[in-house]
Write a structure and sequence with these properties.
CATH architecture of the largest domain in chain A: 3-Layer(aba) Sandwich
Oligomer: homodimer
Order of helices and strands of chain A: HHHHEHEHEHEEHEHEHEHEHEHEEHH
Largest interface: A-B, 75 and 75 residues
Structural class of chain A: alpha/beta
CATH class of the largest domain in chain A: Alpha Beta
Strand content of chain A: 5-15%
Shape of chain A: elongated
Number of strands of chain A: 12
Number of helices of chain A: 15
CATH topology of the largest domain in chain A: Rossmann fold
Strand order of the largest sheet of chain A: 2-1-3-4-5-11
Helix content of chain A: 40-55%
Radius of gyration of chain A: 27 Å
Distance between the termini of chain A: 44 Å
Number of domains of chain A: 3
DNA sequence: TTGAAAGCGCTAACAT
DNA sequence: ATGTTAGCGCTTTCAA
C-alpha cells in the first residue's frame, strides 16, 4: 500500500558513478569487460551497482556499442507445431547466451516479410533467421548493407552465399514416392500446401512428380491439389480425390496437418486406412504419432533446427565472415506408421501367393523399406510405452 | 555479381540533411510529426529520404525519444497451440500499428520469467504481456519503476491494479463439474496440469473440487493427478485412474492435450468413450474438434485474447493511466462433443425407462446443458461441412 | 515554419 | 588499471 507509485526512477550509470566515486567508464567496464578491472575495484563496483538496482539502458548501450544483443526471427506463422518448435529452439538457445528474440510472422507473404526484415533491421538485430527462399533480392541487399548475419531454414542449398539449415525438400519427397512405389502403389494423389510463395510446398510436389516419372508413372493435374494447411481443407481435398472415377491408392500430403485431415475424411467415410488407401505426411508433429492410425511421415527435428540456426547466428557474432558459409544439412527420417500399406490389389495377390505356398505365417505389417534410416513400423505406433519415449524432450 | 560486398553503408539523417540542404531537425519532423512541416517542404523531404534509401537507427531513436515501438510478450511456452495463437493475435495487432514483438518463454519458471522481464525492460519495451499470476512482487516493482504498462492474461481479477484479460479458471472448472454432475456422474477423476507455478492449473482443480463439495461429493487424492501437458503423460495418468478398484466414470482434464491423451489411452484399451467413461478438456484447440470422438471442452478465444491484450497495451501508450485499470472478461463457451455422456448406470436406467414407456424415440445423444452458452452436441462434431465452418478464421 | 544546439545514457578511444 | 572525453544518431527544446 505504501510502496505504490513513488518508486524512484531508474538511475543512470553516471548517477551511480557520481554517488560511488567510481567513474562511469570503470562501471561500464565492469559490466562489459570485467577482466579489465582490478578484482578489488571490480568487487566494489559490483556491490555498488547491485545496491543501486542499476538496470542498463539498452538503447544507449546499442547506440554506443553498435550491438543489440537481439536476434530476429521471421516465420510464416507461429500457429504451426513445426514453426513453434523451431522458434522455441532458437529462442532458448540465444537466451542462454544473453540474447533476446525479436519475432515476426507474415502468413506466407513475401511482401510482408520484406517489410518485417526492414522493421527488424531498423529496430536493431545482430542476426536473423528466415524460412525458405521466396523473397526478392532487395531483402538480401538490405541485410548485406547493414552487415547483419542471417540464415535461411527449412531448405538446403550448398551453393547459397549465406548459411542455410535444412534439407532438400524435393529429394525427401522423392523418398516418400519411392517408398510408396516400392510397396506396390501405382495410382497416386497429392494434397500439397499452396506452392505460390512457398518453396517447400512447390519442391515437395516437384520431387514427388519426378520420382514417379522416373518409373514412368503419370500424375495428372486432377490428382494434385494445393490447399492451406488446415484440417478441413485437407478433408475437402481428400473428398474430391475420392470422387474421381479411379481414386488414388496412395495420397502424399504436404505436411502432417493435411495428412491428418485426409485421414479423418477417410475414416469418416468408413474407408479403412491403410488397407484401402495409404496416406503420408511430412514433419512428424506430435499428433502424427498419437492419432489412430499413426501417420507415416518424415521426421523433421524442428527444435534442433532452431538450435542450429541460433548457433550459426551466434558464431557469426564473433567470427569474421571468412571463407564459404557454413551449411547445416539436416537428415530426415522416414517414419512408417499405420497409414501406409501395400495397395489392395497387391495385398490380394500377396495373400493368394501366401495361401498357395506352405508358409502361412501371417506377417501382416512387415514392409521392405527403401532407406536405411527408416524405422520399422512396429517401433512407432501407439502403445503406451513407445509414446512415452517420444516425450523425452 | 557486381553488387556484391561494396554496398554503401547505411546513411544517417545528418548525411541526408547535409546533402539535401534540409536540416536534420526538419527531416526528423517529417518522419515523426509530418503535420508540423509545410506540405511543399515535406514532399521534398520525403523524396530525398526515399532516394537516399534512408533507414532510421532504432537505438538512436529510442534513446532520444524514450520510446521503442516494441512490445514484449512472455509466455510459459510457445510450443502450445493455445499460447501460439495468443502470441499470433498479439503480434499481428501490434504489427499493424508499427510495433515489433520482443518475445520470450520460460517453461513455467517464475525465476526465469523474472529474469526475462528484466532483460526485456533493459532492451526497451513500451508494453508487456504476461500470463497468469505466479510471480514475486519484485517483478511488478520493476515494471512500475520503469513505467512500462503491462497486462496479465489467462486469468481475470477485477481487483488487480493493472489490466487483466481472461476468465475465472475456478468458476469455469465448476461449470464443467456441474455439467458432468447434471448428466449423472458421481465418481470423478482429475488429470490436471502441474499446479506448482501455474495458477490456471491450480484454480481449475480447486474449482472442480469446490463444485463437487457443493453437492457433497468427495474427490479423494488418488483420483487427482498433476502432469506435464503432454499426451504420453496423460496416457499414464489415465492408465493409473483405470487401475483403481473403482475407476471414475468421468475425468476432467486440465487442458485439451491432457484430454486427448486420456482419450487415446481409453481407446487403446478398447474402452468405449463416452459410453463407459467421459472425458473433458479445456481450451478447444483445433484438435479437440477434429479427433474422434471430438472432445467436450471450453472454448478459449486465444487469438482474440492476444488482440485484446495488444489493444490494452496500445491504448496505454497514448492514454495517461487515469482511474482504475480496464479489465477484459472473456466468455468461455462450453462445447459438448463426443467424449461426454451420462455414466453407464444412468444410461442403463434411462434405457430401461424408455423401453417401459411407449415413446421409443432413440434420442441417443441429447443432453441437458446447464448453461445458456453451451452449444448443442450436434453442432460441434466431425462431419465435413461443420469442420469447414470452424476454419473460417 | 524552420534551423541550431543540447542532450538521451552509454561505450570506447585516448590519456594518464 | 582507471579516469576523461568524445561521440553513437536521433529528437526536441529553444530561437529566429
Amino acid at each position: 500500500m505504501t510502496t505504490r507509485k513513488p518508486l524512484p526512477p531508474p538511475g543512470t550509470l553516471k548517477e551511480v558513478a557520481d554517488r560511488s566515486g567510481i567513474s562511469a567508464a570503470t562501471l561500464s567496464r565492469v559490466l562489459n569487460h570485467p577482466d579489465l578491472v582490478r578484482p578489488e575495484l571490480r568487487a566494489r563496483a559490483e556491490t555498488v551497482l547491485a545496491e543501486a538496482g542499476y538496470v542498463p539502458h539498452g538503447a544507449a548501450r546499442s547506440l554506443a556499442s553498435r550491438k543489440t544483443r537481439t536476434m530476429g526471427a521471421i516465420v510464416p506463422t507461429v500457429d504451426s507445431a513445426l514453426f513453434a518448435k523451431i522458434v522455441d529452439g532458437l529462442q532458448q538457445t540465444i537466451q542462454a547466451r544473453g540474447y533476446q528474440l525479436l519475432f515476426a510472422s507474415n502468413n506466407y507473404s513475401p511482401a510482408r516479410e520484406a517489410a518485417e526484415v526492414r522493421a527488424l533491421l531498423e529496430r536493431g538485430i545482430d542476426g536473423l533467421m528466415l524460412v525458405g527462399t521466396v523473397r526478392g533480392p532487395e531483402v538480401y541487399d538490405m541485410l548485406r548493407q547493414r552487415g547483419v548475419p542471417f540464415v535461411t531454414t527449412c531448405h538446403y542449398d550448398a551453393t547459397a552465399a549465406w548459411p542455410t539449415v535444412g534439407w532438400d525438400n524435393a529429394a525427401e519427397s522423392e523418398r516418400i514416392a519411392d517408398y510408396l512405389l516400392d510397396i506396390g502403389h501405382r495410382r497416386f494423389g497429392v494434397i500439397a500446401g499452396q506452392a505460390k510463395d512457398n518453396d517447400r510446398a512447390a519442391e515437395r510436389i516437384a520431387g514427388f512428380r519426378r520420382a514417379l516419372q522416373k518409373r514412368g508413372i503419370a500424375l495428372p493435374p486432377e490428382r494434385v491439389t494445393e490447399r492451406p494447411y488446415t484440417v478441413p481443407e485437407a478433408r475437402h481435398a481428400m473428398a474430391a480425390l475420392l470422387r474421381l472415377p479411379e481414386p488414388p491408392t496412395a495420397v502424399m500430403c504436404g505436411n502432417d496437418i493435411l495428412a491428418y485431415g485426409a485421414l479423418q475424411e477417410c475414416l469418416w467415410r468408413e474407408l479403412r486406412v491403410p488397407e484401402q488407401i495409404s496416406i503420408t505426411g511430412f514433419d512428424n508433429i506430435e499428433m502424427a504419432a498419437h492419432c489412430r492410425p499413426g501417420i507415416t511421415t518424415l521426421h523433421v527435428p524442428a527444435f534442433e533446427l532452431g538450435e542450429t540456426a541460433a548457433r550459426l547466428l551466434l558464431d557469426a557474432q564473433t567470427t569474421a565472415p571468412s571463407g564459404p558459409p557454413e551449411h547445416a544439412f539436416i537428415e530426415l527420417e522416414l517414419i512408417v506408421r499405420g497409414t501406409t500399406a501395400p495397395p489392395p490389389a497387391v495385398e490380394r495377390a500377396r495373400r493368394a501367393r501366401a495361401s498357395a505356398s506352405a508358409t502361412s505365417t501371417a506377417s501382416t505389417g512387415s514392409i521392405v523399406l527403401p532407406h536405411a534410416t527408416a524405422r520399422s513400423a512396429a517401433s512407432s505406433t501407439t502403445p503406451l510405452h513407445v509414446s512415452a519415449r517420444s516425450a523425452r524432450k
